[in-house]
C-alpha cells in the first residue's frame, strides 16, 4: 500500500473516536489552521446518554455534545450553559446535561435522523469544522470474550471483567449499520485520519466496525494515525502494550492499516493518580517498538503527558503540534522513530 499526503496550506484532518479524549485533541486543533471533521461514536449507553437513549430511542448525545463544545466559537457563558448538568434530586433531570436534552429534542424534531439535527446545531453553536455522527441511528455495541461468551451494550461489556476477543455493532432493526455519505467522503478526502485517544474497544472500534467506515479508512490515501492511550483500561486493555492496541485494530479490519502511532514516553509519577476517581485506569501502557514496526507502523514517541487534578491525560497542544508536523513530512515506510 502506497500513501502520500496532498500538501495544502490548511491540512484536512478527520478525527474519529469518542469519550473524553476526543475533545482534548479537537480543542487544540481548533486553535491551529486546520480543516477539522470529527466522526463521533453513537454506541454509548451509559449515564445521561443511556437514559435519554432508552426513553426516546435517539442516538446517545453525550459524546456529540462534548465535541460540539470543543469546536464551538460561542462565548464561554453559552458553552457552560450547554454543558450544565442538573444536580437536582428530580428523578428525571438529575444528572442530565442541558446539551443532551437539546440534542435529543432536535433529533425528535428532525425525522430524518440525528445527522441533520447535528448539522443544524453546528450552525447554531458557530462550530469551526464539521461534526458527523458515525451513524444516523443509535447502534448497539456487541462483544465476544475469550471464553466464548457474548454480551451487548458498552456499559455491560466494560463491566464484564473478561478479556475481549472481538467487538461489532448492530442496529435494533437488524439492518447493517452504515455511515451517511458525508462521513465516507470526509475520510476519502482527508490528509490525515486520527484515531483516538480513547477507549480501544468502546470508543474507537465502534466507529470502524461500521462497514463502510472501516472500508474507507483502509482505502483512503490519507495517513492513518493512532494516538495510543497512556494508561491501560480496566475491562478492556489490561496488560496491553502499545503494539497490542494496534494489533487489535488490524485484526478487526483484517489488514495493517495504521501508518503512524503516537506514543507517550514520559513516565507517570508513582502515586500521582487518584485511583478512586479514575478507577478504570490501571497501569501505564508498556512499549513494544519492535512490535509496532513489525506491524508496519512508523513510531513517533515524545512527552505527550499532562498531569491534572490527579489524573493522567494527553497534552492536546503537544499532540497536535506533532500531528501538524507530520502533514509536512513525507510518509516513509522505512522503520523510524522520532523523538
From TrEMBL:
GO molecular function, one term: LPPG:FO 2-phospho-L-lactate transferase activity
Main location: cytoplasm
Cellular component per GO, a single term: cytoplasm
Any GO BP annotation: regulation of cell shape
Keywords linked to the UniProt accession: Cytoplasm
InterPro entries according to UniProt: CofD, CofD-like_dom_sf, Gluconeogen_factor
Pfam families per UniProt: CofD (PF01933)
Cellular localization per UniProt: Cytoplasm
NCBIfam families assigned: CofD_related
Reported function: Required for morphogenesis under gluconeogenic growth conditions.
Family according to the record: Belongs to the gluconeogenesis factor family.
This protein's name: Putative gluconeogenesis factor
Organism listed in the record: Liquorilactobacillus hordei DSM 19519
Higher taxonomy: Bacteria, Bacillati, Bacillota, Bacilli, Lactobacillales
Amino acid at each position: 500500500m502506497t500513501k502520500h499526503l496532498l500538501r495544502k496550506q490548511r491540512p484536512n484532518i478527520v478525527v474519529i473516536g469518542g469519550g473524553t479524549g476526543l475533545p482534548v485533541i479537537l480543542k487544540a486543533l481548533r486553535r491551529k489552521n486546520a480543516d477539522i471533521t470529527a466522526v463521533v461514536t453513537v454506541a454509548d449507553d451509559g449515564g445521561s446518554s443511556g437514559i435519554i437513549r432508552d426513553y426516546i430511542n435517539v442516538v446517545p448525545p453525550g459524546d456529540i455534545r462534548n465535541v460540539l463544545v470543543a469546536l464551538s466559537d460561542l462565548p464561554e457563558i453559552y458553552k457552560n450553559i450547554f454543558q450544565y448538568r442538573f444536580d437536582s434530586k428530580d428523578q428525571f433531570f438529575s444528572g442530565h446535561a442541558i446539551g443532551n436534552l437539546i440534542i435529543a429534542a432536535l433529533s425528535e424534531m428532525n425525522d430524518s435522523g440525528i445527522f441533520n439535527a447535528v448539522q443544524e446545531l453546528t450552525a447554531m453553536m458557530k462550530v469551526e469544522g464539521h461534526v458527523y455522527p458515525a451513524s444516523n441511528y443509535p447502534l448497539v455495541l456487541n462483544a465476544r470474550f475469550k471464553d466464548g461468551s457474548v454480551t451487548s451494550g458498552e456499559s455491560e461489556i466494560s463491566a464484564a471483567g473478561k478479556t475481549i476477543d472481538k467487538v461489532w455493532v448492530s442496529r435494533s432493526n437488524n439492518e447493517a449499520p452504515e455511515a451517511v455519505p458525508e462521513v465516507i467522503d470526509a475520510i476519502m478526502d482527508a490528509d490525515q485520519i486520527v484515531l483516538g485517544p480513547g477507549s480501544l474497544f468502546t470508543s474507537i472500534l465502534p466507529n470502524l466496525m461500521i462497514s463502510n467506515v472501516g472500508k474507507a479508512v483502509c482505502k483512503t490515501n490519507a495517513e492513518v494515525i493512532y494516538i495510543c492511550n497512556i494508561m491501560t483500561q480496566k475491562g478492556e486493555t489490561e496488560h496491553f502494550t502499545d503494539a497490542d492496541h494496534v494489533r487489535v485494530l488490524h485484526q478487526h479490519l483484517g489488514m495493517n492499516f495504521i501508518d503512524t502511532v503516537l506514543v507517550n514516553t514520559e513516565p507517570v509519577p508513582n502515586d500521582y493518580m487518584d485511583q478512586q476517581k479514575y478507577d478504570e485506569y490501571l497501569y501505564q501502557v508498556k512499549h513494544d517498538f519492535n512490535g509496532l514496526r513489525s506491524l508496519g507502523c512508523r513510531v513517533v514517541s515524545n512527552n505527550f503527558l499532562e498531569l491534572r487534578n490527579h489524573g493522567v491525560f494527553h497534552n492536546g497542544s503537544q499532540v497536535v503540534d506533532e500531528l501538524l508536523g507530520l502533514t509536512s513530512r513525507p510518509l516513509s515506510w522505512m522503520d523510524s522513530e522520532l523523538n
